[in-house]
Amino acid sequence: xxxxxxxxxxxxxxxxxxxxxxxxxxxxxxxxxxxxxxxxxxxxxxxxxxxxxxxxxxxxxxxxxxxxxxxxxxxxxxxxxxxxxxxxxxxxxxxxxxxxxxxxxxxxxxxxxxxxxxxxxxxxxxxxxxxxxxxxxxxxxxxxxxxxxxxxxxxxxxxxxxxxxxxxxxxxxxxxxxxxxxxxxxxxxxxxxxxxxxxxxxxxxxxxxxxxxxxxxxxxxxxxxxxxxxxxxxxxxxxxxxxxxxxxxxxxxxxxxxxxxxxxxxxxxxxxxxxxxxxxxxxxxxxxxxxxxxxxxxxxxxxxxxxxxxxxxxxxxxxxxxxxxxxxxxxxxxxxxxxxxxxxxxxxxxxxxxxxxxxxxxxxxxxxxxxxxxxxxxxxxxxxxxxxxxxxxxxxxxxxxxxxxxxxxxxxxxxxxxxxxxxxxxxxxxxxxxxxxxxxxxxxxxxxxxxxxxxxxxxxxxxxxxxxxxxxxx
Length: 474
Hints:
The protein has helices at residues 2-16, 43-48, 142-147, 194-202, 213-216, 301-306, and strands spanning 53-55, 58-74, 95-102, 109-119, 122-131, 173-180, 184-192, 230-241, 244-251, 263-274, 280-297, 311-329, 332-344, 353-354, 360-367, 376-388, 393-404, 422-436, 439-452, 462-473. It is mainly beta. It has a single domain (2-473), classed as Beta Barrel (Porin), CATH 2.40.160.10.
């Protein structure tokens, strides 16, 4: 992407007049900014009150999330992986560990956002976010964590996984646009997919890495491939019309603009049903189509001998329907979601290219034919609840289920191949206490299990992962 994105970034930064200017939204939003001057008058105020770091509509904001965890079957901490630890059972989960555990509830990040009135109710808006690991202070970079495992047997690997956060200084967001209460909001640049926004809004765990399958794994939010949870070059439009809402997203520019697909589009429709004393119902539906989506993986020992310093990739055309529902009444919030994802052969089979992390992918290590014989069908279900014990104390629980169809050359329902039918199940519970204006502490546990095709190549099939953490949100 290089020079092209650099020019685009410079244009955005120049427009807002901030030198270093503003997926991930946090499950607890940053405090609202006053219109003109920041209320923080000292370092003491910054840490002990709800004051924002705002000056003339420009706000510096962020989250730092640090904790510790025990895993019955896990892999060692990795300083580059966005999640730091594998909170969900993975192929290389090989040992019981007690470890530092970053980003359990929220991705740690620093950001700058701006809102400047233009005329009428129209405003210029800007947002930049950069995610990092709070222990190593390195930029979140999933593909680099994969490249570091090249050629290693599973039992010797650290935590790793593909991600849209790929070491970019804008790995969370970099967009600008205009917003109006009457006409909606139009933004252009790097921003969340509509499906990622949907997961964050309708997941009882708010997209948590440590307690949510659909938060840890980007398959749901990325229409099958986690790199497509965000697009570096895209246009997004949202508008509310009474109790109804509409949204659309179009990603363009392909791999050259740091997208993990040649193009993509999404459309969303939703509405709220206020029922007075009986609470409020919310519904949303999202349709997505992604062309030539990229899923990266580490190299085997044989591949690493031939192409060290590269990664392997699977290319596919993906589409999905996501249906979301939420019911709020008193201290209760109930959640439910469903997504049906289809994986098909790519429209444009790929040869060697450079990944979103700047790591090359060799032609010999690209699979364009994984879904040639049979289309893969992945169904994702989840339900959960959150209860506000007090205005500062929440408890939440969630259940998550993946069901994969058989897309093997001969029908199978065992773990002999990743293309056999299979399931993933997880259940989690968590308590979150906001003990100060900008601080909260949390603790919880997730149990996860894979079976049959979704357990292919796994060293262990289940894991119990309790963790506790502390967040500072400003």
